Structures are given as C-alpha cells and as structure tokens.
Amino acid sequence: MFSPQVEIMLIASVVAVACAIVGVFLVLRSMAMMSDAISHSVLLGIVLAFFLTRDLASPALIIGAAVMGLITVFLVEMLHQTRLVYEDAAIGIVFPLLFSIAVILISRHAANIHLDTDAVLLGELAFAPFDRFIYQGVDLGPKALYIMGAILMVNIFFITIFFKELKIVTFDPQLAAVLGISPVVVHYALMSLVSITAVGAFDAVGSILVVALMIAPPATAYLLTDRLHIMIGLSALLGVASALGGYAMAHYLDASIAGSMATVAGLIFAIAFLFAPGRGLLSVAKRRVEQRWNFALVTLAIHLWHREKLSPVVGNAYAIQELRQHLRWSSTYFTSVMERALKQGLIAKRDQYVQLTEEGRNLAREGQGF
Amino acid sequence: MPTNALDVSDLTVAYKEKPVLWDIDLTVPPAVLLAVIGPNGAGKTTLIKSILGLIPTVAGSVRIYGRPYKEQRKQVAYVPQRGTVDWDFPTSVLDVVTMGLYGTLGWLKRPGKKEKKLAMEALEMVAMQDYAHRQISQLSGGQQQRVFLARALVQQAEIYFMDEPFQGVDAMTEKAILRLLKDLRSAGKTVIVVHHDLQTVPEYFDWVTLLNTRLVANGPMEEVFTEANLEKAYGGRFMQLKATARALP
User: Fold this and answer.
1) DSSP secondary structure letters along A78-128
2) Which of A163, A278, A292, A309 falls 20 to 30 Å from A298 in CA-CA distance?
3) The complex's ipTM?
4) Could you list the residue ranges that cross the membrane (chain A) (predicted)?
5) Residue B105's pLDDT is what?
6) Sign of the dihedral through C-alpha B49, B54, B59, B60
7) Does residue B104 lie in a domain region?
8) What's residue A243's pLDDT?
9) Is residue B42 a part of any domain in this protein?
10) Per-residue pLDDT tens for B185-214?
C-alpha cells in the first residue's frame, strides 16, 4: 500500500490522536498516573486471555486487557477509599503487582512465544508494518493500523456523543449526580476507553509511550487554551506533531522511534511551559515585572496627589529633587519610574519641577479605591 | 392540606459506622427561606447531601413535594460549596451555567440556542452577563458564587439547596444574593441554605433548622431561634459567644 515509513508514521499518528483525546480527561481529573497503571496492568489481562484462548491474534486479548484495566482502577479506588493509603501510593501498589504477576506468568509458561516483556515496555513500531492484514490474498496494510483506527473511531464517537456528560462529570461530579448523570457510569466508561486504547497502543508503541502520548499533549494543550473542545482538538494535533517529529528525530539519530516520540512530546510541553501566552513561565514573569512598575507609578501618583491636597503650591508643581528624598527610592529606580510616568502622560515636567496631569490624578484615585 | 416541600423522616447517616446524623425528622412547608445552622461537625452539609442522594443513608426516607427524590430531580437545584470544583477547568462562565440544564436535556442531547438563552437570562439575574465568555479562573470569589447561583436558577426548580452561599463573598455580593433568595421565596420557591453566621440569621431567614448531629429544633424563626434552643445546639460554645458579644462595646 504505502512505504513502510509512511505506514509507521500513519500508525504513530493514529495512536497519538487516540491517546491524546482520552488523555485530556485524565489530565483534567488529576488522574494522569492512572494511565501509567492501566498501560502496565493490561499485560496481565492479555496473558490471562492468551492462556484461555492460546491464540495471540484473538480479540479476547483486547477484552481481557480492558477488563484488567477496569480491575486496576477499581482496586486503586478501593484501596484509596479505606483512607489507609493515598491514591498515588495505591496506584504504586496495584499496578506493579499486576504487572509483575504477568511477567512471572510469561517467563514460566510462555517464554517461547511472542510475549516479549521488552516489547511490552518500549513497543516496536519499526516492526508494525510486518504484521499485515491480508484478506483473500490481498494485502490491505498493517494490522496495527486497522486495530488502532478502530479504537480511534470508538474514542471519537464516545467523546462526541458524551461530550456534555464527560464535561459535567469532570468539572462537578456532585452536580452531575444530583442532575441524574451518574459519575460512576461515566467514570468507568472512560476508564474502559483508556484501557482499550492502552492495549491497542502498547502493542504498537509500548506502555511508556502510551503514557507520554496520553499525558504530554493534553498537559501542553491545557496551557494553551481555556476551552475544553479546543483543548481536545489541540491535544490531537500536538499528539500528531510529537509522533511525526519523533519519527523524524529517530530517523535522523538512528534511535528508538518510541523513545524519540516521547522525547519530542516532552520538548513540545517544555516549549509551551516556557512560552505559552498567558500561562507560560515567561509571560507570568513579564506580568510580574509590569505589575511592579505599575505599583511604582501608582505610588508616585498617590504621593503627588496627596501633596496637592495637603500642601498646595502655585501650579501644583513640585521639585523633583525633593520628591526623590520623600520617596526614598534609589536614584536609578526613581529616574526610570519618572521616565515611565512621563511617557504615560501621568506627570508633566518643566525644568526641575513636575506636576500631576489629570490622568495621573485618575490613577491615584483608582489606586486608592475611589 | 398543601404538600410539604420537604419531608425527612428517621434519617440516619454514618461514615464508616460512625453516625453523623441521628434519626432526623424534618418537615418544611413550601415558600420558606430556611437556614440550617449548627456548630462545626453538626452534619449540616451531610444533611443536604444525604437528602440529595449524594451520600448513602443508613436509615430513613426523604420526600420532596410528596415524592421520592429520584422522581423529583427536575424540581431540585443544588448549589454546592464553591471550593468543591476546580476553577481552573477550561470552560467559560456561560458554559458552567448551561450545565444546570444538562439534567433536563437528558443523555445524548446537546445544549443549543434555547439553553444558551436561558443561561444568559440566569446570568443577567445575578448581574454577571458581561462575564459570560470569560474563563472561569478569572473570577473573584463573589463572582464564582454568583455563577453557581445562576447555574441553579437556570434549572427553574421548586426547591433550592445551597451550601454556604455567603461563604467568603464581598458585602455587595452578599446583599445581591440575599435579594435573590428573597425573590425566590416570593415566587413561591423553597430555599434551604446551610448558614454559618448566627448574627444574620433572623434578618435573612424566616425558618430555622437547628442541628447538632440530632435535630435540635425546626420551625419558624420566632419560635425556634431562641436562646434556649441555641444553647442546646451549640452548648458551651454558645455561652462563650454570648459572653464575647456582651464584652464587645
């Protein structure tokens, strides 16, 4: 169909979008680490289902994995609800246990079949095009593309249909319950999607990259927008950008594809973290500096305004030298505040005297809460 | 005889076998403005939550306008404490208010023009229409409370449950909220408010429920809001309050 390179990029993009759009709700519900737990413990579901069916291609594997994902969520919540352990500790207890049971089972009973623990953690995207979907002798493309394409469709369908329910349950589960929209039902439906997505995705890209693709793009989008539907769209785009950028990086460095994609996802987050308009570190710092200058201007205006009222002189003009002594500011700081005030038209200057303009008086009034 | 707005009988609620509310019997007539008061840990929030089915009850039953809560969802609006949600959530003021209508919309249906219009009207009632398209994290505490109130108003319910709507709001918002609550009562709605400030109780409300894990008293303001009852609910703490109040100029 396509060249293997294109197929790999296609699979990676589909995986990225499928992960990102469910990841949005994990991030907003402060459940990011649940993706880590689920993406590991699904292995036990796969192994158990394999023991039952003895067929690695059986769809029962996906069902087994999804069920194990839900069991993970359930166990974590049960443990947490006893209030004897914190939620993150509960996650840290449950999923390594389930995962290691799977690892032991594989090494004891399935060492000679293709259930390789390395591939589970890191996936092997490069080999994905070898596993073809062949129907009546016709090669229809890589199997992974079909599986992930189907999962992506399910995710899109679910999120579109239940957008309103997902939103209210995420924002205010109590109100949702009062209005008759069961938070528990929505919660477990979402967790089923996360599980199914994790299974499909980790076959292709491994469980570490599943976490990276579920969390990093939504966390980045969260910094860039304040509307939920835009956050979902943006997460999908950023996921694809991570996938394609990562592939290019892997190609250039001749390194692991999955590793490169996770790295690029992290880099994109770092860029947004620093430069996002409004919420990024840089604009927060800029805002703080502006606030400091504004505060200095208000202080200056209020001081001049008080003097006008308390000790009026002809023309309301005051000697700059005297002003500096009153405010006790360093001369460089004083000079820059005065320059700013002049530039913004808050004061007028003639020779060595200044007076407040009407604008400056307004600022003083506002500053004092009049 | 007209139906009561709220009938609670033999309600007992426990957290892990530790009872929080003991055998509460409570009747509330329609069209009153009711304050639920009591010391910290008296179970005020728990009472509201268990009436609304948010907390499982150990025993007892709740009827709203004569029928179980599940059949009356559309008659009930709830204003939780402001701190229970994440105000950094990526959504607009108008959107939050529209959420009040998700119940009547039912599953699958999406809010459309009609819902937006209703939400806008509710925002006007709390004088927040200019903020409709703001991100909710940009609001002050008082504005957040108004938005929550608008979200309840948009439901056009018969009975309103509000958990500390005056908590941490500025004086102007407090007045505006109070006016709104009184308007609701005048329109024949029943408003049940968990309240903290004993001083304002007689001025704001006309019906009082005094709670301290048990029901201490429930009835019209002048009958129930008495020193004897307050002492029963607050115990020694009330005596201290009174002493402090006397010591003040």
Assistant:
1) HHHHTTSS-HHHHHHHHHHHHHHHHHHHHHHH-TTSS--HHHHHH--GGGG
2) A278
3) 0.87
4) 6-28, 37-54, 60-79, 91-111, 144-163, 175-198, 204-224, 231-250, 256-278
5) 84
6) positive
7) no
8) 93
9) yes
10) 999 999 999 998 888 888 899 888 988 888
Q: What is the pLDDT of residues A200-226, one digit of tens each?
A: 887 777 777 888 999 999 999 999 998
Ranges of residues in chain B with a pLDDT under 70 are 1-2, 236-249
Domain region containing B232: 6-86+156-247
Query: Do residues A65 and A46 touch, judged by C-beta distance below 8 A?
Result: yes
Longest Cα–Cα distance of chain A, Å, equals: 101
- The architecture (CATH level 2) of A284-367 comes to Orthogonal Bundle (1.10)
Domain-embedded: residue B149: no
CATH number of the domain where residue B221 is located: 3.40.50.300
Buried b (16+ CB within 10 A) or exposed e, B134-147: bbbeebeebbbbbb
| Average pLDDT, rounded, for chain A | 86
Q: Write out chain B residues lying below 8 Å of A28, CB-based.
A: 86, 89-90
Q: Find the chain B residues whose C-beta atoms sit closer than 8 A to any C-beta of A.
A: 49, 52-54, 73, 76, 78, 80, 84-86, 89-92, 95-96, 99-100, 102-103, 105, 107-111, 135, 137, 151
Mutate to test the interface with A, among B48, B55, B78 (most CBs of A within 10 A): B78
User: Based on the structure, what is the number of domains in chain B?
Assistant: 1
Give the C-alpha separation, A19 to A151, whole Å.
10
Which of B15, B86, B134, B144 to probe the A interface (max A CBs under 10 A)?
A: B86
Residue A357 has pLDDT above 70, yes or no: yes
pLDDT of residue B148: 92
Shortest alpha-carbon distance between residue B241 and chain A (Å): 34
What's A4-279's CATH class? mainly alpha
Above 70 in pLDDT, residue A228?
A: yes
